[in-house]
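Q: I have 470 residues here and want to know how they pack in 3D. Can you give me a structure?
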Amino acid sequence: MKHVRNLSANVLQLALNQLFGLAIFYLLSTGLSKTDFGQINLALAVLLAVFNILSMGIDQLVIKRIASGASIQTTLSLYIGHVLLGGAVFYGILLSGKALFPHAGDTYSLILLIGIGKLAMFFSSPFKQIASGLERFKLLAYMSVISNLVRCFSLVIFAIEFGPINIIAIVIIFIAGDVAELLTCIYLFRRSIKIKPAVKWDRSAYFNLLKEALPQSGVVVITSALARFDWIFIGFILSAQKLAEYSFAYKVFEMATLPLTAIAPLLIPRFTNLFLNDHPDTRNFKALVRIEMMIAGLVGLLLNVYWAPLIDALTGDKYGAVNTQTLFVLCLSMPLLYINNILWTAFFAQGQLKMILRAFIVTLLVNIIGDVILIPLYKNEGAALAFLLANLAQTIFFLNRNTIPELKTAWQPLIACTVCAIGAGFITKYLVPDTWLILPLSVAVYFFMLIITRQIKLTHRQQLQQLVNW
């Protein structure tokens, strides 16, 4: 039941974050021109990639260490020292660049200003990762929701009181939200964990931590590049307007991975404890894969069946029809993201970091080559296709290296659920004249096809109960 409570707390904070994030995203995408919206997204893409790289994989390693019973005070001290050092060096480089090139473009100025807030969020990461490692997901929820809450309500109040939002207001509000998150994390951590944040420099321990995280550091560099390379490439090679369109579709797709985002943090400590046993019980893996594939297929179906008319109505014909094909291709990646997360977590819990690094090198190469070839040819649809091919390459690599019997057939529900979702979407979209009936009928057809393909059986009820109590 602890697992259920953790999942509930994590789902709640993610739902709130997604709700606030969706409101922020809507206000920005509809209140700004495509050029301004694209520039902000380009700045955010660069900053998020850089700060993910600066974590060097230590964030995930900290969760694993704490879940394994390592000292909270020592681990916290080492991680705080790392973020302070990495953040100071990076922002010092940013400031130096502005001093050396005072006439740098608007995007650089945005990076410099918004970077203040992202630096504060980077400083807050040790407290959140310790809470996650301790499986204190209720505490993590309070820590994680404050930034989006401040930003959302500030933007709404500004829009009501002062009219259309502008770049200056957005920068100030974003910085305020991120700083509020840092202060909240420090306060809640001291009150709940009863440990005073402090940095006690231990050179030997720090370099041992870096050495242990080294294989994962490569993974982080690659995943950061993988997550935002297409945004940056589109922004510089095509235009800010095309980036605005692609980032809108990608952001909605990213928000739709809420179930995966809710489940993923729970799996690391769970899998870590499981593989501490010489003979881990992995019988629940098969049920976990099948359930996640059904969820991924359902979410992708819901996104696509009524995308264009709904989004165009909400955004004044800016981002609906123009993104129909892009979103469809992105949604094909969703089941792959789910299965890759399960396989990555299993390998990570077993300490197979070098193998994971090789997998992500393959993924990055496929993504970069795909972007370089396909974006000039097919623009945003090319970026989505490159993303799909990269995730497919990672899935094939992981399955080829997998030794867990229950995961050897993970590709079967992946294919079955994806085909069911695509089939349900096409059947209802092209055979049902009433657009308002498409949504409920497509869901009904999807589950009917899952039953026909034996992805849902009466015998699965017991497996589901075991998984809930796992």
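Q: Anything worth noting?
A: The chain has two domains: 1-201, 215-470. The CA atoms of residues 67 and 254 lie 28 Å apart.
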